[in-house]
Task: structure prediction
Amino acid sequence: MDENEKKKRESREEKYFPLIDDHIKMIMPKLTLPDGKMIEILQSSLIPNDVFNHGFTTRHGGVSTYKTLSSLNLVHSDKRRDLSVNVQENRRRLALTCRFDPDKFRVAKCVHEAKVWVVGDPEPDSYDALITDNSHVTIAAPGSDCPTVLFCDPVKKVCHIIIISH
Result:
C-alpha cells in the first residue's frame, strides 16, 4: 500500500469512527459474559483473598477495532489508537467478571515519574503509583514493559500498586 492509499484509509477510518462508536455504545452494554469465563483472572496464593480481592488479567476477553490490539486493553492512549469506547467496554467486562464498580476503577498513568496518588486526595496530572485504604475503590496498573508491584498490608488494610520504570 502506497502512502496516498494509506492516508485515504486513515482519513476514511477517522470519518467513520464516530458512527462506529455510537453503534458500539448501543450494542456492547447488551452483551453479557457467559459465566464470567471470557476474562481469566490470575491470583497470588500469597495475598489473602478474604482481605484483598486481587488479580492479574491475561490478554484475553477484550474488544478492539484493530486486530493488533484485539486483547483486553484497559488503558486508552492516543499512541495505541484503540477507541475509548473499546477500553470502556473492556473495563465493563472486567468489572462484571471481578464484581467491582467500574466507576471506582483507578489506573496508574505510566509516566515514568516518582509520583504517588493517594486515592481520595486530589488526583495529580501524572503518577506511577496508587495507594488506597478504601475497600470500594479498585486500583490497577497496566503491565507492559515496566514491572508492576503490588503491596498489601493486611493489618492496616492498605493496598499500593507501583510501576517500576526502567
Observations:
- Residues 101-166 form one domain.
- Residues 32-37 have pLDDT under 50 and may be disordered.
- The CA atoms of residues 9 and 15 lie 10 Å apart.
- The radius of gyration is 18 Å.
